[in-house]
Amino acid sequence: MTSLQKSDAPAAGSAVVCRNLTRFFGAVRALHQVSLSINRGEIVCLVGDNGAGKSTLVKILSGTLAPDDGRIEIDGRDYRRYDMREAQRLGIQTVHQHLALCDKLSAAENIVLGREPGRFRFGPIEVFDRARAREIAEQSLKAVSATIPNIDLPVEKLSGGQRQAIAIARAVNAADRMVIFDEPTAALGIKQTAATLDAIRKVADTGLAALVIMHNLDDVYEIADRIIALRLGFVVADVPRSGMSRSELAARMSGHD
Ligand SMILES: Nc1ncnc2c1ncn2[C@@H]1O[C@H](COP(=O)(O)OP(=O)(O)O)[C@@H](O)[C@H]1O
Ligand SMILES: [Mg+2]
C-alpha cells in the first residue's frame, strides 16, 4: 500500500486503545494502570519528566516490551502483548530517536526497505523494481512535504533533517495505523524542527495516528491535538491542546499541582 492510498482510509475512530497497562522493573512501577486511546488522524503528544514511563509505554506499543498487566485493543481485538513483527503487521511503525537508516543505501532504498517492490521472479529470486521503488519513495516524501534533492545518494551524505525526513517517509510508507515518534525534534535545529513538525502533521493528515514523545512544550503546543502527561507511571493529564495551560501541564508533570 502506498502513502497516497492511505488518504482514502477512514480518518476517524481509535487506532489503538490501552487498558490498564502496568509494567514493573523489579520494584519500580514504570507504568501503573495506564488507559488511553489514540485516534486515527490525531497527533497525541506524550509528555512527562524523566522516569515518567514514556519509553516504557512506547516500547509496549511498538512490541519490544510486554506489559505485566493490561490489554491493548486494536480493531475490537484484545492483545495481552504483541511482538515487534506483529506490531508492524498491525500497521504500527516507530521512528526511533537514533534513526535506524542504512547509511550506504539510498534514500529511495531506505524508504522501501523490507517492502521492496518486486518486478519479476527468477524462481526464488525476485528482481527489485528500482523505478517503482523510486516512485514510492517520491510519493512517501511528498506525503510528508519533504524534498530530498537526490534520492539516489547514500543517506550518509545527507543532513540530519533530511535523514529525519527519510525515516518519517519510510514509516509512513510502511504504517497503516499509527506512527510513533521518539523525541523526533530532540537533536534538530529550529528550521529542521519546523520541517519535522510539519511532516508529523502530514502523517496525521493521511489518516494515521501519530504518537509523539516530546520534551519541548513549545513544540508540544504547536503540534498536539491532544496531550497526555505521565508522571511516575500514572496518567496525570489527558486533554485536548486547548484544554490545559502550559503552566498547569508543567505543574502536573512535576507533581507541583
Ligand atoms: N530496562 C529497565 N530496567 C530497569 N528499570 C527500568 C528499565 N526501563 C525503565 N526503567 C525504569 O522505569 C521507569 C520509567 O522509565 P522510562 O519509561 O524510561 O521513563 P521515561 O521514558 O519517561 O523517561 C524509570 O524509573 C526507569 O528507571
Ligand atoms: Mg525515555
TrEMBL record:
Molecular function terms from GO: ATP binding; ATP hydrolysis activity
Gene3D superfamilies from the UniProt entry: P-loop containing nucleotide triphosphate hydrolases
Chain ranges of the ABC transporter domain: 16-257
InterPro entries xrefs: AAA+_ATPase, ABC_carbohydrate_import_ATPase, ABC_transporter-like_ATP-bd, ABC_transporter-like_CS, P-loop_NTPase
Keyword Nucleotide-binding applies: yes
Keyword terms: ATP-binding, Hydrolase, Nucleotide-binding
SMART domains: AAA (SM00382)
Protein known as: Xylose import ATP-binding protein XylG
Organism: Roseisalinus antarcticus
